Amino acid sequence: MTSTGLERALIMQNARVFKKRYLLLILLAVFAFGAYSVFHSLSPEQVLIRKLKVNSLVNLYITEANAGATTDFSYRFYLYDASKDDKTFMAGLSGNEPFMITADKDAFIKVSKDAIFLSVKGKIDNFHSPAFYRAGGAIYSVPVYLTTSP
Asked: Which is nearest to 144 in space by CA: 62, 51, 79, 56?
C-alpha cells in the first residue's frame, strides 16, 4: 500500500468513527427525552378528601396526592363545575389544573360571598389567584385569598 492509500484508509476510518459518535449522541438524546416524557406524564394517584360548595356554579375539591413511597403527600385544590358529580371530576383530573398544591393537610378553608379564604401552614408548591373553572362552556373565576405561615 502506498502512503497515499494508507492516508486514505486512515481518513475513512476516522470518518466512520466520527459518524458513530454522532449516532450515539443522537440515541442518548432520544432516550433522555423519552425518559423525561414518561417521568413527567406519570401523574400521582389522587384521592378525593373534601368537597365544598362555593356557589351554585362551582365546587371546591381537595385531593390527596401520593406520588410514591419516597415522597410526601400533597394536597391539591381544584374548582369544578357544580352540575357534575364527583366521579366525573375524578375521571377528568388529568385535564384540570389545581389552583393550589400544598403539603398542609390541615389548611383552613372558608367560603364566603363567592370567594375562597385559605390559611396554610408550611410549604406551598403552586398557587394562583383568581382560580378559573369551566361551567356550561364558559370560563369563570373565583377570587382566592391566601394567608400563609411557616
From this structure: 79
Q: Domain check: are 74 and 86 in the same one? A: yes
pLDDT at 30 over 80: no
User: Do residues 38 and 51 share a domain?
Assistant: no
- Regarding whether 72 and 141 lie in a shared domain, the answer is yes
Whether this prediction's pTM lies above 0.85 is answered by no
H/E element, 23: helix 3-41
Q: Can you tell me the distance from the alpha carbon of 142 to that of 110, in angstroms, rounded to the nearest whole number?
A: 13
The total of structural domains in the chain comes to 2
- Whole-angstrom distance, CA of residue 21 vs CA of residue 27: 10
- Beta strands 74-81; 58-66: pairing state: antiparallel
Which residues form the domain of 25? 1-42
